[in-house]
Fold this sequence. Notes:
Layout: H1 2-12, E1 18-26, E2 29-37, H2 40-61, H3 69-76, E3 82-83, H4 86-101, H5 111-114, H6 127-130, E4 141-144, E5 149-152, H7 165-179, E6 185-189, E7 192-196, E8 204-210, E9 213-223, E10 226-232, E11 237-240, E12 243-246, E13 249-250, E14 255-256, E15 262-267, H8 270-294, E16 299-303, E17 309-311
Antiparallel strand pairs: 1-2, 2-6, 3-5, 4-5, 6-7, 7-10, 8-9, 10-15, 11-12, 13-14, 15-16, 16-17
Helix pairs in contact: 2-7, 4-8, 7-8
Adenosine-5'-diphosphate (ADP) binds next to helix 8.
Amino acid sequence: MPLLFLALLLVAMPAFAEWYSDEQAIMGTRVSVSVWHDDQAGAEALLNRSMAEMRRVDAAFSPYREDSELSRLNREAAVRWVNVSDELWELLQRARQVSEWSDGAFDITFASVGRFYDYREGRQPTADEREAVEAIGYRHVELDAERHRVRYLHPQTYVDLGGIAKGHAVDRVSRIIMEAGVHNASVSAGGDSRIIGDRRGKPWHIGIRDPRDEQAMVAILPLMDVAVSTSGDYERYFEEGGVRFHHILDPSTGASADGAMGVTVLGPEATLTDALSTTIFVLGVERGLAFANRIPGIDAIIVDPAGKLHFTDGLSDLQSD
Ligand code: ADP
Ligand code: MG
């Protein structure tokens, strides 16, 4: 009975799970996904769906694509009400909430001036372009909750979701992975990551790099079931006359924020940690720590302009000196 014997053997064989990973360049950054899965075809299909979801979010919310939903909003909302998708509505609401909490340190309309920087080309806004600082202000984005419509109240207002969209993409992919029944995974898009479960009995180790030395770590955190986002002044920048012009702007001035070199935030979801790392970077050490300590479930590590580390109360165990 060789056939029957074979069938019994297959049933008795334990599922052989292992890590499956993929890494691709999406959203202008490195996206990587790892899942602990018990079959290769299933794992590969899940990794493909994850990457496709990242691409979908990029296509919808990239300000660099003419045909994105965000670009359409930016073209039309100063002229008329624009109906938006539930997903964009949700993102605009989350951004609005963080703006209110932070008294405008986080503000997606920073781009009214921010759009005129080109970090690769070393270009700053001209004096004329800098006058659009008046168009910065989250209150210039009117949200009609009843009809999910949006309009801009200033003709030069321009929105960029770069401070929150990657976190959102990471959360969307994490949801797909969890709904597929996977209990151990990690998802990251540039500086925004989410860890689902642990590394099979061990924590994941996430390093916080030295903002002035790509090869060096200032801290290594053992983590599980958490979202982690880092914002740094080394990601996109150029220098001129000894001044560093980088991609995190203080909405009150339209100039690069100078109260920190790097900020890492831990919390339950990447959409939130992404927005908060940018926020706390703008707030700087003192206001940033006070702010983070007020939000339940949120912790932060700030590397100040001199390179010194500062921790929120929940991480005081990590304090070294
Ligand atoms: P990244 O992973 O791209 O470095 P960060 O979380 O550090 O992302 O956020 C930086 C991005 O956030 C910028 O590239 C810009 O798109 C956006 N941004 C910059 N300043 C602000 C601000 N004050 N409020 C909201 N978004 C901002
Ligand atoms: Mg961020």
